[in-house]
Amino acid sequence: VQDLQASLDKYRKAKLEKERLMPHIHFEPITAKTLVNAVKLQERITKNHCAYLEYQRAIKTDNPYYFIYDGDEAIGITGFYVLPNAPEDAWLGVGGIVPSHIRHGYGRKVMDKLMNMAKEKGFKTFRILTNFVQNPNSQTLFRQVSDICEVYKEDNEKSAKRYIYSKSLIDAPVKKWKNKDCNAKEFAKLEKESKKIIKEIS
Hints:
With 202 residues, the protein is of the alpha+beta class. It has six helices and nine strands. 39% of the residues lie in helices and 24% in strands.
């Protein structure tokens, strides 16, 4: 009995220490004044993308993007967007964690916090469109926080390179996306224009 009690005490102590060392994050909305800094941080995370116009658009809505802070240090960006053809769905936006802070427990905390925010705002489903070729390291996290995963392929693509992960935010099973339009062409156009703008103002 004493050995069992000692083992339990050791386990509780180790658990408390692990929780103490876990990151304590908070979100700060991206504003017009911090927009360029947000894009610079985002480009450290996703080097091939530029979300200037996406972040600018979001500032004017009820769903802005956010700096992710651990204490006083900005270690990432997160947020979600809404498609016109799916007003009850929140989609994970362009962002992530800076490379130096990956695999430190931030990803799961950010996703949990973001999904709770979407739920509080009345969204019924949280979805993640991800390129599993360009972004293989995030797939484990996305599987852990989601209910289902679907292959996503546009009509002009020869082979599938993307998944859509979906999580129900209500007390009901999640509905499949079923390969509907995700506004990919519009996002590609915005990104191209964003890169030109950033190049001009840098």
